[in-house]
Amino acid sequence: MMDEVAKTNIGTSAVREEYRFDEVSLARWMAANIADFKGPLKVEQFKGGQSNPTYKLITPDRCYVLRRKPTGLLLKGAHAIEREAQILIALGGVGFPVAELLGLCTDDAVIGTWFYVMAMVEGRIFWDAGLPEISPGERAAHFDAMNSTIARLHCIDYGAAGLEGYGRPGSYFERQIARWSRQYRDDEEAGRNPDMDRLVEWLPAHIPPGDETTIVHGDFRVDNMIFHPSEPRVIAVLDWELSTLGHPLADFAYHAMMYHMPSHIVAGLAGTDLRALRIPDEAQYVDAYCRRTGRSDIPHYQFYLAFNFFRIAAIFHGIKGRAIRGTASSAQARERAKAFPELARIALRYVE
């Protein structure tokens, strides 16, 4: 199944009809705002991506990547392109691996919605968490690279990085549960689900004690990273749309959720023989993160898993709504939206 996911997400295609824009207007903007831009400009659309449409901009000298807000009716607070641009600048400034931001446009008149342009990072993207493309002997080192990257993110001083106002410190779970519950309930076209309804009631009443605040990515998965072309090293973390200031254990548990995620939904390892694949098991992976971040363990880990499956279920519910409205940026959105009930059911398993 993951082979099919990869085929439908890897690479680019011609810009789909509903996502076309005035390429001449974009070229004029780039000539005025991107220092080394020289046309002619060719535009292709990346196959992957569910939320903000993403394009490859090709010129004779170099390639760029453009991410834009989708057109049509948008949920409040979603698709905040300007926030993605802000965190790319901040993290690049402290040496964290992200693509270089080259320009942000907040003028709808240029291509119809706000957008930003960043440098194209060449490397490897793995769509299957089992890493079948590389030899078994290399897999542990690649997992360690992911682990060290998310631990490094959570150790960044967000104040020193200029991100004091990027989110509200504290009460992360209360705010996130309320946010995703509201988006789930407000998207009437996507419908309701009894498992999701129960989670909306249960989660806010069982938030663990204690609070921490760091930069959180919000969607830290293997397929949102670019690895070095030949080394076990992450050279760019992608897709910062859901990033904010939040609880690092929520962010880490979302990443470690790959151990429980069916591979037919997103990059997951549920049901696989980790020993045969020579991939560290979940306990080893959690221990490595704890060691890097100065922890002895992660209490209430089951809650963090339940919260994250609820959250990704809400995201897929949103994909379902956008597919119904015709504003989903991926051609596979309708197919992926079918996984929403399964995700809600898995989340409820940790509650029960």
Can you describe what's shown?
This protein has 352 residues and is an alpha+beta fold. The protein has two domains: 118 residues, Phosphorylase Kinase, domain 1 (2-Layer Sandwich); 216 residues, Aminoglycoside 3'-phosphotransferase, Chain: A, domain 2. It has 13 helices and ten strands. The chain has a six-stranded antiparallel β-sheet with strand order 1-2-3-4-6-5, sandwiched between helices. A two-stranded antiparallel sheet has the order 7-10. Strands 8-9 form a two-stranded antiparallel sheet. The longest helix is centred in the last third of the chain and has 25 residues. The chain starts with a helix and ends with a helix.
**Residue share in helix:** 40-55%
Q: What is the CATH topology of the largest domain?
A: Aminoglycoside 3'-phosphotransferase, Chain: A, domain 2
Radius of gyration: 20 Å
In spatial order, strands of the major sheet run 1-2-3-4-6-5
* Whole-number count of domains: 2
Q: H/E element string? A: HEHEEEHEHEHHHEEEEHHHHHH
Count of DSSP E strands? 10
Report the mean per-residue pLDDT as an integer: 92
Shape: globular
Class by SSE composition: alpha+beta
Low-confidence stretches: none
N-to-C span: 29 Å
Number of helices, counting only DSSP H or I runs of 4 residues or more: 13
Question: CATH superfamily name of the largest domain?
Answer: Aminoglycoside phosphotransferase (APH), C-terminal lobe
Quickly give the CATH architecture of the largest domain: Alpha-Beta Complex
